[in-house]
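Single Protein Entry

Contents — chain, fold
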Amino acid sequence: MLELRSITAGYTRNAPVVRDVSLTVAAGESVGLLGPSGCGKSTLARVAALLHRPDSGTLLLDGEPVRHWRHRAPREKRTGFGVVFQQARLSADPRLPLTDLIAEPLRATGRGREADDRTAELAPAVGLTPDLLTRRPHEVSDGQLQRACLARALVLRPRLLVCDEMTAMLDASTAAALVAAVESYRASTGAALLAVGHDRTLLERWCDRTVHWDRLA
């Protein structure tokens, strides 16, 4: 389903943080990408989710090369990914109540009429009670906000989830609840997963297989 071939990527010219890395995620498979902070795994995850254009290399979806990233990528490719980042407060609009945060991708793709039904469906699935949905990010805990960010990632029914250190800043019980919500979604849809992290125990328990960063080539 997803194949990264010899990817080199970075943020400044001639200073890549990812060099000649290859990785595959089969349809329905869950893959853990294990590595220390600063190794480049989050950059590779952004490339995989079509959020960052690589300097070189090839990304294939269902065997077809991807030629455009971010807003230039075809909508059907962009919306096939759901992404959850490590720092929920940096990825959430502080002006929006959680209900609008969750529905944001629907409205951005012209499907705003689905917002109420999808929010009502997803909120309990990720552990959000109705009273929390009216609150803004500064009025909820980090764990509650990350639950909303996971719901936002699921709202378009993606085929592949990219969870970049999703649980790194959360307590054990919240982390377990979020992993359970991801697995429930995957069980019902057959979605694939790329889970990025530095916690070997978590990734090896969560994923079908775990790939170590220093073994990628």
